[in-house]
Amino acid sequence: MKYSHTSQPTRDARAPRPGRFRYSAHAAHDTSSAPEQGAPGVSSGDAACRRSSTIIPYLPIRAGRVAPLSGITTLRDPGDPLELARHLDDRGAARLFIEYLDQDEPVEALAPALRRLVEELRCPVLVSIADGRLRSPDSIHQLLEAGAQRVAINTSAVRHPGWVNEITARFGADSLLAVIRARRVTADWWEPMIAHGVEATGLDAISWAYELVERGVGELLVHSIDRAGHGWGYDLDLTRAIADAVPAPVIASGGAALPQDLVAGLTKGRASAVVVDELVHTGRCSLEMVNTFVGAWFAQLRGGVERA
Fold first, then answer.
1. What is the CA radius of gyration of the chain?
2. How many structural domains is the chain composed of?
3. Is residue 13 one of the residues assigned to a domain?
4. DSSP secondary-structure letter at 186?
C-alpha cells in the first residue's frame, strides 16, 4: 500500500530533501563512561562498570518471555525479562529499548508488567508494542503512567499521521520515539516499512523523518532492514542522511556485530546513540566491554583534540 498524507504535501522520492543539520557525536558521549586510561580493545575486567549515555540494549518480549532467549551465560533464567533488564541496567545501559511483540496484547494487560519492571531499574525505558502500533492516542498515556520514558510509534504514525500531532500536543515531544524501519531502494533513497517490515509505504525515509519532527517528535530511531541480523554494521549512509536532515537526536539500529560498529554509528553515522542486539544478547560481548571500548575510543579522540 502506498501512503499519501493529505495534511502534508505528498512526498516524492526524488524531491529535494530538507535542510542539513550537524551532530557532534563525541560531544554528546557521556565522558563519565570512558575509562581514565586505556585504549580500544580492553576487556570488561579492566575497568569498573560505567553507565554510557549512548548504548541502548534491545529487549524483545513475547508472551511474557524474552524472545529469543538471551545467550548471556550468567543469567539464571535467560528468558526472564526482569532478570535480563536488571543485568543490563547493572552493567551500564544508557536506556533499554523494550519491544512487546504480541500485537494483540492490550495495553491494559502490558502496563502492570511494565510498571513492575521499570520500578526495578535505574535506567530509562523506551517501549514499543508490535512495531510501534498504538490502538489510539490514549494508549500512550497508560504506558507513560507505567514508567516508559518514551513510547515508540511507527506503523500507527504512517497510518494515522495526525496522531503524532495529537500525542505530542497532549504529552510533549519527549513522549514519543518515532521508529523508521527502512530498506534501501537506490543508492540515495530508502523506503520506510511498517507492520514488522513487511508492508511498503512508498514514502521517502528522509522526508518522512523530517515530517515526523515537524509534527512534534523529539527523537528518532532509524533501523536498517537490510543490515539487521547480518552483522554488517549500521547503514551509515541512511543514519547520516537522516541525522543531517533533522534537528532531533537520531538513534542507529540494525546490523552491529562488533564494538567498532558502535563507534562508526556514533561518528560516521552521526547518531546520538546506538541500539545493540545480538552483539550483547548472544554473549559475544558483555555490555561492560562494549561500554569500555566506546568510552576509551572517545577518550582517545578527546585527547587528540586537546593535544592539537
1. 19
2. 1
3. no
4. E
Domain holding 149: CATH number? 3.20.20.70
Q: Nearest-CA neighbor of 287 among 279, 296, 297?
A: 279
- Is 6's pLDDT higher than 60? no
Per-residue confidence (pLDDT) for residue 16, from 0 to 100: 43
Task: Give the residue with greater pLDDT, 52 vs 136.
Answer: 136
Q: Phi/psi at 266 (nearest 5 deg)?
A: -80, -20
Residue carrying the nine cell digits 526472564: 80
98-144 tens-digit pLDDT? 999 987 778 888 999 999 999 999 999 999 998 888 889 998 999 99
Note whether residue 251 is domain-resident: yes
Which three cell numbers, joined as nine digits, stand for 23? Answer: 551532530
- For residues 142 and 34, the model is more confident at 142
Residues with Cβ within 8 Å of 158's Cβ and at least 6 positions away in sequence, in order, are 3, 192, 194, 201, 203, 208
Q: What is the mean pLDDT of the chain?
A: 85
Helix, strand, coil in percent for the chain, rounding step 5 = 35, 20, 45
Inside any domain, residue 4 = no
Q: Domain of 205?
A: 25-38+48-307
Residues 6+ apart with CB under 8 A from 121: 85, 86, 89, 96
SS3 192: strand
272 is a domain residue: yes
